[in-house]
Amino acid sequence: MRRSTTALIERWTAKGPVSLERLCEWRDEDGWGESWLAHCEQALASQEEELLRLLEAELNLVEAATFTITKSRLEGVEADELLRQVEAALSLAKNPDSRDLALEGRLRMERGLAHIECGDMESARDDLTWAETRLKSVSKAGRDHDISLLNKAAFHVLVDEPLMALQVYSDIPRDGEHIPETIAFSRYGAAQLYAHLGQFDAALRHAWVAFTLADESGLIDLAWACGTTFLVIGAESLDDSAQAMAIQVEEATPRSAGEENSEPGVTTAEYLSVFHRCVELWDGEVDGNSRQDLMGLLSAALMLGEMDEISDLFISPEAFEDPFLIAAIMQVVDEEESPKWQHRLTSMMTLSTKESGD
Predict the structure, then answer these.
(1) End-to-end CA separation in angstroms for the chain
(2) Residue 193: φ, ψ to 5°
(3) Helix, strand, coil: what percent of the chain each, to 5?
(4) Residue 17 preceded by cis peptide, ω within 30
(5) How far, in Å, are 54, 224, 225, 327, 328 from residue 291 at the CA level?
(6) Helical axes 20-29 vs 6-15, angle rounded to 10°
(7) Nearest-CA neighbor of 230 among 297, 281, 291?
């Protein structure tokens, strides 16, 4: 199975600089084809400038035009300019002298994303659908096909079509050719949608699959997001008679029309295991005005009697920006500590009132 592009970047960081020949060997070991485009994009994101210079010189005309679009996105170029760049790159991808069927699919996806930014949802729908179909045909389960599926699902969520999004996620099987990162992202998205639809048994299973895959694959940020989502969904579903999550996942079957939801259930031991891993994954940051992840961690600690495990959460009220999280913390801290949390909440509300009045 193809490894993530980060694998080569990590080896470069640990063992580089190395020759292009050696890089080609690493790329082959990781299960990639001859194009360096994906690794250029990862090197750019990782700010590995020396590696980027080496690999960017190996891009062909269409790949270089596509990479320009990636750089423009990171630089925050306006959607109109992005559309112009995409159209120019598409012309190259369609030209008989430089024809590239896979990159034509990738570029149609890029055009769809630019249409979203411009507010043209119907054009975006057409491009994203066309791109996924083309990429499935020429590079099924390849990196760009995986991204096209995730983007297509995200589009359906954006236009309030959750069942369509779930259908797209179902096109990414757990036992297929897709890399664990793609499967984890799809199951994380599905978990959120099922929870929104009130199907908490399915939401719990998908969150567990997403967390397990992300954690095993070393995707720390994703594992944290999936793990805390699992804690939130499972908070009211502790049941020591429940089957192991792995068995629940394997035995799950599609729900028939009109069939009632089954009750979600997770054993205390499995729930505690995910909680402890989330504590390990937490980076200690508390800023951000919407911290449902930390709310989940707090609720789980309170339910499990593990408050000592998250003592770092209660150190500095001034660092918090989520009023709902502050209010929740006020319910569990000692009376001596409560006034400073109240002061932080009051100061935030006062500031918010002043800003809304300006």
Answers:
(1) 56
(2) -70, -45
(3) 70, 0, 30
(4) yes
(5) 40, 12, 11, 12, 12
(6) 140
(7) 297
**Nearest CA-CA partner of 266 in 339, 211, 336, 334:** 211
Token pair 């080569």 is found at 8
Contact 224, 274 (CB under 8 A): no
The residues pairing with 266 across neighbouring beta strands, listed in sequence order, are: 238
Dihedral of CA atoms 289, 290, 296, 298 in degrees, nearest 10, equals: 10
pTM here is: 0.88
Please, what are the averages of pLDDT over each run of 10 residues along the chain (358 residues)? 88 95 96 94 96 97 97 94 96 96 97 95 98 96 94 97 96 87 96 95 96 94 96 94 95 72 91 97 93 95 95 92 94 91 88 53
Long-range CB contacts (within 8 A, 24+) of 205-210: 205/245, 205/248, 205/249, 205/252, 207/233, 207/234, 208/245, 208/249, 208/266, 208/274, 209/174, 209/183, 209/184, 209/249, 210/183, 210/184, 210/185
**Helix 61-75 and helix 101-118, axial crossing angle in degrees, nearest 10:** 20
DSSP string, 295-315: HHHHHHHHHHT-GGGGGGGGS
Residues 314, 318, 323, 327, Cα dihedral to 10°: 40
Instruction: Give, in order, the Cα–Cα distances in Å from 267 to each of 238, 240, 244, 247.
Output: 6, 4, 7, 12
Supply 79's token pair. 């959607």
**Three-class secondary structure of residue 266 per DSSP:** strand
Structure token digits, residue 114: 């630019």
Residues in the chain: 358
Q: How many Cα neighbours within 13 Å face the side chain of 227?
A: 28
Neighbours of 301 (CB within 10 A): 21
How far is Cα of residue 44 from the mean position of the Cα atoms in its chain? 19
Q: 43, 51 in Cβ contact below 8 A?
A: yes
